[in-house]
Amino acid sequence: MEKNLNYYAALPYEITITPSPEGGYVATIPDLPGCITQGDTRLEVLEMIEDAKLCWLAAALEDEDDIPEPDWDLYNGKLNLRIPKSLHKKLAESAKREGVKLNQLAIYLMASGIGEQEKNF
Q1: How many domains does the chain have?
Q2: Which of 17, 34, 55, 95 has the fewest C-beta atoms lying within 10 Å of its C-beta?
């Protein structure tokens, strides 16, 4: 398969969006160093980062630079945590009260926390 602009543009690169101290938002693609843009709204910055990604990729292809590809194989869905015994006990007791497995409760709590965090952006 030829690795051209269309190939790289279709890859699922992670996009990071953070509020800017000056107002608006900043978007970056961590796998593409220097690929950054800024916009007034999250929707605007999402559109702009796609344009910035295409420009970054086109320039790298023209200069025959190596283009990193996202490595989603690192994320296999397994996460081992070491937590205090007291927290383990509280989580296990809570899962028992709710009638769910500890793993299900932990996934629910993490997803809820991420959802709350993303709402603030």
Answers
A1: 2
A2: 34
pLDDT given for residue 74 in this prediction = 62
**Crossing angle of helices 85-98 and 102-119, rounded to 10°:** 100
Backbone angles phi, psi at 38, to 5 degrees: -140, 145
Count CB neighbours of 37 within 10 A.
Answer: 20
Supply the DSSP string of 47-93, one letter for each residue. HHHHHHHHHHHHHHHHTT-------GGG--S-------HHHHHHHHH
Q: Are residues 53 and 99 in the same domain?
A: no
* CATH value at residue 28: 3.30.160.250
pLDDT tens figures, 33-82 = 999 999 999 899 999 999 999 999 999 999 999 999 987 666 667 778 89
Range of the domain at 31: 5-62
Q: Residue 71 falls within a domain, yes or no?
A: no
Enumerate the β-bridge partners of residue 27.
17, 37
